[in-house]
Design a protein that fits this description.
Structural class: alpha/beta
Shape: elongated
Largest sheet: 4 strands, mixed
Oligomer: single chain
Radius of gyration: 30 Å
Distance between the termini: 49 Å
Order of helices and strands: HHHEHEEHHEEEHHHHEHHEEEEEEE
Number of helices: 12
Strand order of the largest sheet: 4-6-5-7
Strand content: 5-15%
Number of domains: 3
Length: about 375
């Protein structure tokens, strides 16, 4: 694998095309309902993986660019805007500086938000330990039927959030809004949030957050994170819904609507929290339709979308456009650019060659098997 500026650019272009395809198939609710959650989740994962590996692979085919890319690269690396303490400020250095400033700012802002959140956690009692709460019994019942890799460390109720959510993987913490919830509704909510823990969704959201920080300037990556959040909610809904007895499934749908109605504003939470409900009405509508629609996802639409996704993923690694400069040779202290259109060799009788550039004799070549020279046309002096 080889990393270069052009491999990064090609990865961004290919990744943006993949994200556009994902957004298109999810934008139409009729199409999205026919697609399996497993396909959508795996497709999102491979998009994340592709964009996190901006390399030229062993099977990548190089397409040379002899005019546009060399001109752009020369401008970015050689044009000087101004000089600061003998340091030339070129376009490439300026763009790199802006990118670094953006990354540092977003990292600091993200860390600050999480520090604020984790400072809040100790301020509230743990409902697992509360004697007047059913949380401990509900969690135990869920663990018995749906084991999770790491049990919940704490469950807190606070007005800081307006929808249930979970944060963390090794020591998950569940936040509950200040709502009047029945034990049955609480069971549905905790089952949903523990489905996120069981699926290890926090790791996927962590990778997407890192990708968003690195590509803070790219709105397509932000769209990918939004679509990934929706897919993870669909997956958690399906898991929780399937593990509920038929008599409680309508209650799960009612609980989704109840929490959605209580949301008056967007929850001010870090990006890696797994929300039970959002205030996007379209997303809630499709979540409910997915649960009540029992149509099999093994449809022609599902396989057709899967085939296109695989082809696009493979195609994103097949080609790379690289700048191609004319080969240069230094002869007698002078540097010449060799081009098949204006350079050629004349064969001499002693197995040597006279090299001409632009009709002018340059030098006698004793070894023709040199890169840049061996491609030149050869003519006989006769």
């Amino acid at each position: 694998m080889h990393f270069s500026a052009t491999s990064y650019i090609m990865t961004i272009l290919g990744g943006n095309c993949l994200i556009c395809f994902l957004c298109i198939i999810m934008r139409d609710g009729r199409i999205a309902q026919k697609l399996s959650i497993r396909f959508l989740k795996y497709f999102s994962f491979f998009i994340l993986l592709r964009m996190m590996l901006p390399f030229e692979f062993f099977h990548t085919i190089t397409v040379p660019s002899e005019k546009i890319l060399p001109t752009v690269m020369d401008f970015c690396n050689e044009y000087v805007f101004f000089t600061i303490k003998n340091i030339a400020v070129t376009p490439s250095r300026l763009l790199l500086s802006v990118w670094i400033v953006g990354v540092v700012y977003i990292v600091c802002n993200t860390v600050r938000n999480y520090m604020r959140l984790y400072r809040v956690i100790p301020c509230f009692p743990n409902l697992i330990d509360a004697t007047d709460s059913n949380v401990s019994a509900i969690l135990t019942a869920i663990y018995n039927t749906n084991p999770v890799p790491h049990p919940v460390k704490k469950v807190i109720r606070t007005s800081f959030v307006n929808t249930p959510c979970v944060i963390g993987f090794f020591s998950p913490v569940i936040f509950l809004p200040d709502l009047d919830l029945t034990p049955e509704e609480l069971y549905c909510i905790l089952l949903h949030e523990l489905s996120h823990v069981r699926h290890m969704d926090f790791i996927l959201m962590l990778v997407s957050e890192i990708l968003c920080i690195i590509n803070w300037w790219n709105p397509f990556v932000t769209s990918l994170r939004t679509r990934l959040e929706e897919i993870l909610e669909f997956h958690a809904d399906n898991t929780a819904f399937a593990n509920l007895p038929p008599s409680h499934r309508k209650l799960y749908l009612d609980c989704l609507l109840k929490v959605a109605r209580s949301q008056q504003q967007k929850p001010l939470l870090p990006a890696m929290t797994m929300l039970f409900s959002t205030n996007r009405s379209g997303t809630l509508k499709y979540r409910i339709l997915r649960l009540v629609n029992s149509e099999s996802c093994r449809s022609v639409t599902n396989y057709f979308a899967m085939s296109i996704a695989v082809l696009m993923l493979v195609a994103s690694t097949l080609f790379i456009i690289e700048p191609s400069w004319l080969p240069e040779e230094e002869i007698n202290g002078e540097v010449f650019s060799l081009d098949e259109d204006n350079s050629y060799l004349l064969m001499r009788g002693d197995e040597t060659y006279d090299m001409y550039i632009g009709g002018n004799y340059i030098s006698t070549i004793h070894n023709r098997n040199v890169e840049g020279i061996c491609e030149l046309p050869v003519y006989n002096t006769e």
